[in-house]
Structure formats: C-alpha cells, structure tokens
Design a protein that fits this description.
The protein has 247 residues and is an alpha/beta fold. The protein has 7 helices and 14 strands. The N and C termini lie close together (5 Å). The structure holds zinc ion (ZN) (2 copies).
Length: 247
C-alpha cells in the first residue's frame, strides 16, 4: 500500500499547507481519505489522476475535510467526463451537505445529468462498510461539525491504515488505531490543549496504548509546526505535503 500525503494542513492554511487529503494506492485500487478544498490542486501537483480514484472516505463534515468534493464533481463532469462509478462514505447527512455546498459555490452544478453513478453511504458507529475490496469501520470521536465525526479504520490487501479525523483525545481512537500499520493522527497543538483537537503531548502519552506500528502526525497548527523537530519517537513521522509512505 502506497500512501501519498496530498494535504497535511489545518483549516487555517498554517505553514502554507494544503487541506486534509490522503491518496492511497493498493493493488488495483486507488482511494482518498478526506477531500479538503485544495485536494484537486494537490493531486494535480503530484501527478495523481482523479479518474483512477474509485472511492472517497470522509471523516467529518468540516469544509477542510469534505468541501473538495465540490471541485471534484465539476472536474469529473467537465474535464475528465467520468463514466465509471464513484462511492463516497461519510457521516449521516453527507449528501445533503455536499449538495448545499456545491449549490452555494456553483449554482446548478448538482442538477446536471451525470454520466457516472455517484453513491453516498452513511456511517453507523462501529459498523464495517465494504466498498469493493476496501473495508472501512467508523468510530465516533469528539469534534462538533454538524454531524457525528469519526475516526476511520481502513483495511485492504492485508494492511490497515487508520485516521483520527479531527478530535480531542477519546478512547475510541485506541479501537481505531490498534494493530494498524499506520495511524494518521491529527496533531493541531504541541503543548497547549485546544478544544476538540489533540496535542503532541497527548498523543505521546497514549502512544503505547494506541498500539499502531507507526503514527503519522498531520493537521498541525502554528504552535505544533514550530516544534516538529522536538518529536523524536522512532515510531512517529510528521507529514509533509507530497510525502509518500510505504505501508
Ligand atoms: Zn480540520
Ligand atoms: Zn474539523
């Protein structure tokens, strides 16, 4: 499994990083984890082809994690003229939130007749969803975003990659991360707890408990970005836009 960091930034553009998006390629399948507003820009920079992506797994309904779907759809319609299906999984109400965002930004864009099947699947806490050979299991976390937010555990080809989404520390992260080959953890702060986000100090404290083989920090705010060099645990890497990780 090859994971490419398309965007490792927060909602505030900290460090000039793009918004959250990870591209995963396995034998015969490509998919995205989250799709922030800048996802298409990031994919174009990295030479990743949106046409090859068969599914998109969304953690929660904040703009820096799902609004890239708006540009994705107009690109699919007008540029690539996609004809093969796309499956999007996300919290309850994801289709309605997508339509509202798309109609605000590109009026009429959701009313055109699509050449491809677009399928939305809503999460149920702890229930696995199979999308082709990819199994995603959502675990609820704590991060107000107008719909339940989730950490995602994604299993395919004998590998497990988990993602915290955005959240303060909650024990459900252990269930999502345990035994994962890679756990991607939001790490907005270094030391200063901020509501509904995690700090490096909290993640460090829970590293053994999380039980993932490797942890990748992402979604860093300015305090964390200034102190990345202080993260020295050999199990932990700090994401950069464009970084490729062999899982
Ligand atoms: Zn975010
Ligand atoms: Zn968020």
């Amino acid at each position: 499994m090859k994971l490419t960091v398309v965007g490792s930034g927060d909602a505030f553009g900290s460090g000039g990083r793009l918004q959250t998006c990870f591209h995963v390629a396995t034998a015969g399948e490509e998919f995205l984890i989250d799709c922030g507003a800048t996802s298409l820009i990031g994919m174009q920079r990295l030479g990743l082809d949106p046409q090859r992506v068969s599914s998109i797994f969304i953690s929660h309904l904040h703009g820096d994690h799902f609004s890239g779907l708006v540009w994705w759809m107009i690109h699919s319609h007008h540029v690539t003229r996609r004809t093969h299906p796309l499956t999007i999984t996300g919290p309850a109400g994801i289709e309605e939130r997508f339509v509202t965002a798309a109609e605000a930004l590109f009026p009429g864009s959701t009313k055109v007749e699509r050449r491809f099947e677009l399928r939305f699947i809503e999460y149920m806490q702890g229930e696995a969803i199979d999308v082709g050979p990819i199994r995603v299991t959502p675990y609820e976390v704590r991060h107000p975003s107008g719909a339940p937010p989730y950490a995602l555990r994604i299993e395919t080809g004998g590998k497990i990659v988990s993602f915290s989404g955005d959240t303060e520390w909650v024990d459900s992260l252990i269930t999502a991360a345990n035994g994962a080959d890679l756990f991607i953890a939001e790490c907005f702060g270094f030391n200063e707890p901020r509501g509904y986000h995690m700090t490096w100090r909290e993640i460090e404290h829970h590293l053994d408990q999380l039980g993932a083989k490797r942890v990748m920090l992402t979604h860093m705010g300015t305090e964390m970005l200034a102190k990345c060099s202080e993260v020295r645990d050999p199990r932990v890497l700090v994401a950069e836009d464009g970084m490729i990780v062999d899982v």
